[in-house]
Amino acid sequence: MVIVHVKITVQRVRLGAAELQVIRPAKPLANGALYDTGHQYHMYVDRMDGRRVGALWLLAARSPRSLVYLPMRATPPAPGINPDWDKEERCPDRPLDLVLAHHSLQFPPSRWKRLRKWITAGSAPREVRTASVPDTDLPADEEIDYRALNYRENRDALHQRVHAETLFLTGSAAAFRQPARHFFAVAKEGPPAAATSLYISGACNYHVCRLFYWPDLDPGRGQDIHVEYCPRWTT
Questions:
Q1: Residue 90 has pLDDT above 70, yes or no
Q2: What are the residue boundaries of the structural domains of the chain, listed by start?
Q3: Angle between helices 173-194 and 47-62 (to 10 degrees)
Q4: Within a 10 A sphere around the Cβ of 214, how many other Cβ atoms?
Q5: Do the beta carbons of residue 193 and residue 46 sit within 8 Å?
Q6: How many Å apart are CA 151 and CA 169, to the nearest integer?
Q7: % the chain with pLDDT above 70
Q8: Is the predicted pLDDT of residue 151 greater than 50, yes or no?
Q9: Using 50, 70 and 90 to split pLDDT, how confident is the model at 88?
Q10: Are 187 and 208 in contact (CB under 8 A)?
């Protein structure tokens, strides 16, 4: 068993009578970015941040009373992304943040903008920790009941909503564990592929990627999520 460690910041927030935690990376993601292309969400990660993102997805599966917040809009544009996108329009390659929330939390995205302003204030209390998750949390392909995922009553699909420049993904613990394996696969397989002369970022058949699609996602109610390995583009 391999233990994956990730440094996080934890903040406690009270919403009415309930208290929840907001978990985010202790340091910004330097090479992890998310874009809305208008027909698909594209995520780019290098080896290090791919593993960090994967660990945070596993942490979301273990933390049903927490919001896992990945501030990705501040990441410098990935190669091939237009940095001069029009912020006033819904344009291709619009950068987004990402929030993962267990469905039992029933957190309304409409409250996120105000909450984000509070937790990002310099005076907001926070605690830095090292979270540890075992790689045994990652289900092997043979452990996933794909037939069950095909049914409408499947409760392990990810539901999407965009609000306040943030993609919200809500679902069960299994809904986060299953796709988390894609990030670790991309982080593992990407570097040797990028070292070959055939590697072309963004070119079909010449890069390492994974796709979240139905039945991983709520069918007919969202966009596919394309995760691509990209060699480190900023330090």
A1: no
A2: 3-229
A3: 170
A4: 14
A5: no
A6: 20
A7: 84
A8: no
A9: very low
A10: no
Residue 86: what pLDDT?
55
pLDDT at 84 over 70: no
Q: For 153-167, how does the pLDDT look when each residue is reduced to its tens digit (9 = 90+)?
A: 446 678 899 999 999
- Of 98, 102, 93, 41, whose CA–CA distance to 71 is shortest? 98
**Each residue's pLDDT tens digit, 108-126:** 999 999 999 999 998 889 9
Kindly state the tokens that stand for 136.
């045994």
> Two tokens at 201?
């970022």
Q: Annotate the chain with three-state secondary structure.
A: CCEEEEEEEEEEEEECCEEEEEEEECCCCCCEEEEECCCEEEEEECHHHHHHHHHHHHHHHHCCCEEEEECCCCCCCCCCCCCCCCCCCCCCCEECEEEEEEHHHCCCHHHHHHHHHHHCCCCCCCEEEEEEEEHHHCCCHHHCCHHHHCCCCCCCCEEEEEECCEEEEEECHHHHHHHHHHHHHHHHHHHHHHCCCCCCCCCCCCCCEEEECCCCECCCCCCEEEEEECCCCCC
> Is 187 in contact with 229 (CB distance < 8 Å)?
yes
Tokens 């960090």 -> residue: 52
In the block, residue with structure tokens 């593993």:
51
Average pLDDT over residues 42-46: 96
Within 13 Å, how many C-alpha atoms sit on residue 157's CB side?
A: 22
Query: At residue 69, what is the residue type?
Result: Y
